[in-house]
Amino acid sequence: MTKSRHVCADREDAAGYDDKTCFQELAMRPYRSAVQAAALLLTALSLAACGGGGPSSSPTSAVAGGKGIAVGEPAPGAPAREEFIAQARKADCAEQRNRLFIIDNELVLWDRAGNCADMSWNATLYRLTPGAMLCTAGDTIAGPRTTCTDERYRALLETAAANLAKDDLGLGGAHKVEVVPFIKDGTLPFAPLVQDQYSGIAQPRNVVVRDRAGLETLWNAHYLGRSPVPPLPEVDFQRSMVVGVFAGSQAAGCQSAAVATVEGDNGKVVVGYEISTLMTVAPCAQALGAPMALAVVDRYEGEVAFVDTTPEHMAFTSLDLEDNSAVATPETVVVRDAAAWNELWARHKSRSVPVLPVPQVDFNRYMVIGVFIGSRPNGCFKTTVTDVYRSGRKIHVTRVDHQPDPRAVCTQALTTPSHLIMVERSDLPVVVSSHTVT
To answer: Which residue ranges make up each domain of the chain?
Structure first.
């Protein structure tokens, strides 16, 4: 009140106000301020509803091809790249293609194709997470089919699926399309580019080429001294890269190089190559050879490792070839210690009376591999391990299963064929492949 009196005294001196009028005016000031603020807020809301405030303030609808947010939708964040990559790495039926694209930093397209009877190819459009699917298109047993949870995105998906070879997926310059690099664990697709027994590159080397200039330099070095030089092959380095192996000078011209496998392994590409001797009835050329091979794989900016997968055959000893094993279910067993060996032998021979003594194995130097094919209807079924070889980072075991000719006379009793072998010890994983013969 003291402050108000001073103000009113000043006003009265300046403008002839009396105290009563001045005090009434001061008392109304807070209410006038509140009314003015409310009026300003109503004006702003009216302008926004009518599109006022300039072009940038207009809300946009999230229709196919649009980049905005529909009224009521949450503001977009960044796509969950790692979640999509984890999903794609575990995908089945993706041996031929397995790619992720981010469109306008708002949508994710997953394109994959493989060797499956159903869904041999599929393209799926998502929002920011794998759980937010918008549309999916694919090849089914009943024919191609597209389904959408949001029909506004059907046209965009169908356009992209029809233009997967184009950098912009056929969507045009108004859209930003980004490829998400990743490597699927397991077998990766590759296409041979060139294989030659004679190269101008005389020193052993492995190569990864990610641009046309690099390929041209390598191409000319490989064909050094030859005329004419074959034309440089076309490679789409936006989506692919070239990997290869040069074995260097060899003593004879019967050596061959090949890219045998390409695999994804914990985020890196592993190229398996083989350097082998060609089996030919013609004599080998006496000139020095320098075998090489190049292949095209999906582009990857991360680590690329090379592994010599040339088969190295391993000698093995047969420990037991049995048609009446007590192991009645199909399985492969790898034994690397005496305790596990004693347990397996007891299980395997539990039908024998008396149980035969356990064959002695020095597990510091050897290991045991047992193959069991399970119950069979007659005595004409057999199984035999015919080959063991080391290739790359695996031990491969070849098993031949014999089945009877329909005209064969067989013992009519259930059998359980098996074969146990001893081979040089290795901590590499063991892979068994089987072949059936009559």
So the answer is: 2-40, 81-180, 186-310, 313-437
